[in-house]
Amino acid sequence: MPGPPRAIPERTLRVLPTRDRVAELLRERVRAQGVALALGVIDLRSLEDRLIRAARLDPIGTTEARLVVSAVAPDAARGTTLAELATQPGFAESFLELWDTLRRAGIDRVGFERLAAQLSRRPDSLSGRRFTALSRIASAYEARLHSRGARDGVGARLLLPRAIAELGRARLASLVDGARVIEVERNAELPVVRARMWEALARAGLAITIEVPVLPAGDDVVAPELVGALELLRRNLVEEAPSVDLRPMPLLHDDAKLAAAGLIPFVPPSRGRALVSATVRNELELIDAEDERAALRGVCAAIRELLHEGVAPHRVTIAVPRLGLARHRVLAALDAAELPCEETRGQPVLQAAPLRLTIALIDAAERDLPREALAGVLESAYVARRDTTLLLSALREAGSRDNRGIGHLGRLRVHADKLARQPPAPFGAPTPTEPGRAQQRRSEQAARYHQLADRWEHLFAKLRLRRMATLREHLDAVFAALRALGIPRRCLALPELGDGSRERRLERDAVAALARDRAALEALEAAGHGLDDAASAVGVADAAVSLTDFRAHLEAALAGVRERPAGVSGAGIAVRDLVDLARSPSDYVFVIHAVEGELPGPGRVLPFLDDEDRQALDRAAGRPVLGAPTAADAGTFALACAGVRERLVLAAHRHDADGREVMRSRYFAALAAALGHDHPPRSLAAGVVPSCAQSSTRGQLLTRMSMLAREGRPLAGLAELPGRGELERALSWAAGHAHDLARASVRLPDHSRALALARLDFSWSGQREAAPGLVWQGSATSLEDYAACPFRFFAQRILRVRAPASIRDELDAAEQGSVRHLVLAEVMQALRDQGLTPLEGGDRTGHENRLAREVCEAVLDRWQQHERTGPLPLWYLHRDLVVRDLSRTLEGERRFAIEAWEPGEFEIGFGVPAEDGSGAIDGTPLAILDRDGARRFELVGRVDRIDYRGDGRELEGLIIDYKSGRVSDRLRFDQIARTQLQLPLYAAWLATRRPDLGDADAAYVSLRDGERSQASLLDLCLSSVELDGLLALDPNERRDLRARAASEQDQPQQVGPPDIAAGALDLPEIGQRNLADNVWALLGGVAEGRFDVRPHDPGRACRYCSFGPVCRVERGDELDEADA
Q: pLDDT confidence of 250, banded at 50, 70, 90?
């Protein structure tokens, strides 16, 4: 006889806190069973959304809500303490944050008005006046929504309990997947509005069971913040949901092995020591790092150790109290350590480069396109305009600061017309400069400026955004400006790369970057359309808003949009906020940033309310409405520790990322005290290169071991290490390069070297049809650049990297040098034409000074009329400085008048285009033959000035080269023909050009004070045998010099420079020195593609180098302190 029928178990729906928790549960089922179905499981937000849609409440979005607040707040707050604040762009978002928080706590519009009236009974109450203003805005906001039959998200949840009661049983059963029992997993927060929803479901016939964390029995002395956090959860359910069953979940239970760690900071020290069990002592680790970087290294090293032990990455979680502030640094540390990570929250899309550029464009338009802000937009890599630098330079020259009045282009056209006009004739002594040819150049420049203004006219019309317009008009204008700038087109274009493996990696990264940029632009377009639709939905589509308010609305619409999280989905180390960890358990947890101010933090700051306002609100409501500011962090920390299954690591640091001193968290200190002296925190010292035990990456470990090998210290256990051969080779290389660790080799492969030499027009073989035997035409400056640092030569003359042009108003260093150079050249020419050179002083001093002052003023007047001067006050100050420097220079000339040097020629070019713009070539280049005489290097350039003295066989020549800085110790014996090539090359050119000269000398003259280099080139050559034959250019004579030097040596060795010299460091420091041989050695380095990062003297070469951002050598300023 069959028995009684078996009872069918009631279907249960399990509600989890977040979608990530649901995904984690399903992955656990897949790993355990091989397959998992999402039946009987749902996250809390999805259940709420399902019920809201079924009740047809249809809430508006946050964008619509912000627009409504922006529309009603100014009028509603008029005459209150918030009248001015309500007109600010960010007010709507702040108000909605406060209003949503109050409504989640169960305070609706009527209740808020009643509380505000109660608080305002005291006329001198600041809180009462503030709450009155807020209640008026809230009432106006709710009235506007009601008039349009709309409601926002929190408003829909307030109406949800009543709507659930109106749903039929069959409809409700389908919404909960036919379940009769709903089990709700513990959550870190349970507001009143959600408790009312559970009560409505319980009254509809469903059995609701909610897990509620409670303190263990017997712990009566617990910190108030933790008691308050847990009591708030329980009280909301008891008062608002009496029909719901509560399932107490003690923080200390058998499955929570490390829950005691979350309770210790909130109990007395004696109780805390009693809670430390053997499990807590073994599975809890504290890291006390000197700085944040050391803490991240220690955590990464500990995680790598776990992975080596066989722990799967998905079982490890890194929790940060406030992830958004430290997200980039944490992900960078994991990436450097090559640890797979999974981030639950992606980067805000607003941080993407195209969107940052969009906001910068709107910000610049708000301020009438100031030149600095305009440069930040136009110089972006996303703006494909080749003449941007020319435009900014022209605007700077025209003195245009912003787009007000006639605008940037109007001022540029005015400046072009000014250039095209005939310059006034200089007064005083006539000077043979300008008129026809210079005026032609100015006219051509003016025409170029007019063409430049015409080319940019269309774009500037798009960049001028209207100050007041509707949202749709603002959006159309911004999108039109972005299209005019070419940003969407640039985000679709891949760069042209080669076919090598490195190029393929670059192409892969470029594709990923373009995908991010396209996603950002799509998010911008979606946000723009959403903003337009939201304005239409709430009836403000035709209302004009300011450009500032539009930018605030657009930023707020994009703030909630995030990129796809980086990392490996479901199989990497989880990077989460500590709040998310409180809702989802994990096996191995690393809590970092355990410092005061972050754990615990200052609590959730609500706009417009301070601590007194919170207390006043609680007193008026008769219950805690918002809870204590630190209660949330206390509950979060306790629940997070209770969810740790295997191991917990808490990391604190003493200094933050900016070097500021911080305090360890009180939670960290309490745990350290409870563990006792026999289990102290692990200390990690700060350092740029970590120790071997703290190294978390291969590069860090190899760097540390290389430092040990360089110091000659033995490495214990090296024989037992895997890959010993490769490691030994690396360490041997490090020891061999110990003297030059700061340098980096750049040797181009064959195809890249061919492209580089083609860009230089450099033919090492000398096989040219037009000029047989010619290897290269170059200047002395280019050779000095290669000698001082080959990489600087590579960046400037092959890659043609240009430092950003200055956008400052005052004259830059080049302009200051140019105006002084022009003044001194014309003054000395005028003095010579009047027969006043060499300057004698004495009775002629007054006449010399008057003539010099007249010529100087004429030059400065012409400069002021035709060149860029910047603001007049700065220019007047600089004019006075130029006159002062000229007086000092003339005094310096008088001091050297006793040597009887007579200025003879000015601005003499050789192998360079003539200054008249005719296209003719001035002079003949200096040909320097190689050792065999078959090939030649041609030196081209322009000499500032040549002085002569004597006559006949006693005739001598002196080349003067002007410098803006000090020159007293500039010419150095040990650097002649090594890094200082200009003066020897100019002297060799003069000796070749004027074979009638008995001697050809060269010296520097300062444009600041007229001082000359302490010793001229000839003085140094005559003082040392090493410089005998320095200027010899004939190959046979140079061969004899090398043979003579070799015969004087005791042991046979190479004489002279090597065939290939990668900079001056490869040139010999002692021995016979010849200019031509050194030049050809440097040319050999160029021919071999040797462009190493090898500054000869970092203290001097790197101080003013503009290629620091792409160079891997530390600035050497400190090396030059003694010389300074």
A: confident
Phi, psi of 1105 (to 5 degrees): -75, 135
pLDDT > 90 fraction of the chain, expressed in percent and rounded: 26
- How far CA 1023 is from CA of 317, 645, 648, 973, in Å, comes to 72, 82, 75, 9
Q: Are 832 and 855 in contact (CB under 8 A)?
A: no
Among 306, 307, 351, CA closest to 328: 351
Please tell me the predicted confidence (pLDDT) of residue 783: 92
Q: Based on C-alpha coordinates, what's the Rg of the chain?
A: 39
Gap between the Cα atoms of 374 and 330, Å rounded: 34
Residue 366 in contact with residue 554, Cβ under 8 Å? Answer: no
Query: By C-alpha distance, which of 691, 606, 809 is closest to 134?
Result: 606
Summarize the chain as % helix, strand, coil (round to 5): 50, 10, 35
**Distance (Å, rounded) from C-alpha 202 to C-alpha 449?**
78
What are the residue ranges of helices labelled H in 999-1088?
1017-1022, 1035-1047, 1075-1087
- Model confidence band, residue 1120 (pLDDT cutoffs 50, 70, 90): very low
Provide the 8-state DSSP code for 952.
Answer: G
Residue 658 clears pLDDT 70, i.e. is over it:
yes
H or E element in which residue 343 lies: strand 341-343
- 311: exposed, middle or buried (Cβ count in 10 Å: 0-12, 13-18, 19+): middle
| Token pair listed for 820 | 């002084």
Q: What's the rounded mean pLDDT across residues 163-191?
A: 88
Angle at 358 between CA 352 and CA 361, to 5 degrees: 140
Rounded to whole angstroms, how far apart are CA atoms 551 and 359? Answer: 7
CA dihedral (167, 170, 171, 172) positive or negative: positive
At residue 1095, the pLDDT reads 81
Across the range 587-608, mean pLDDT stands at 83
Q: Is the pLDDT of residue 430 over 50?
A: no
Burial of 65 (0-12, 13-18, 19+ CB in 10 A): buried
- What single-letter amino acid sits at 608? F
Q: How far apart are CA 628 and CA 228, in angstroms?
A: 7
Q: How far apart are CA 278 and CA 1079, in angstroms?
A: 75
Please give the helix or strand (H or E) that residue 43 lies within, else none.
Answer: strand 41-43
Fold of the 259-345+567-684 domain: Rossmann fold (3.40.50)
Q: Cβ(450)–Cβ(417) under 8 Å?
A: no
Structure tokens at 232: 């708030």
Q: Averaged over 757-769, what is the pLDDT? A: 91
Q: Are 1015 and 972 in contact (CB under 8 A)?
A: no
User: Which amino acid, 417?
Assistant: D
937 neighbors 778 (Cβ within 8 angstroms): yes
Helix 547-559, helix 471-485: angle, nearest 10: 80
The Cβ of residue 316 has, within 10 Å, a number of other Cβ atoms equal to 24
**Cβ neighbours of residue 1062 under 8 Å, at least 6 residues apart?**
790, 1085, 1088, 1090, 1091, 1092, 1094
Burial of 931 (0-12, 13-18, 19+ CB in 10 A): middle
Give tens-digit pLDDT for 102-119: 999 888 899 888 888 888
The 3-state DSSP class for residue 418 equals helix
Tell me what pLDDT residue 8 has: 46
pTM of the model: 0.69
Degrees to nearest 5, angle at CA 460 with 454 and 461: 100
917/444 Cα distance (integer angstroms): 11
CB 212 within 8 A of CB 248: yes
User: Peptide bond before 313: cis, by omega within 30 degrees of 0?
Assistant: no
Mean pLDDT score of the chain: 83
**pLDDT category, 137, cuts 50, 70, 90?**
very high
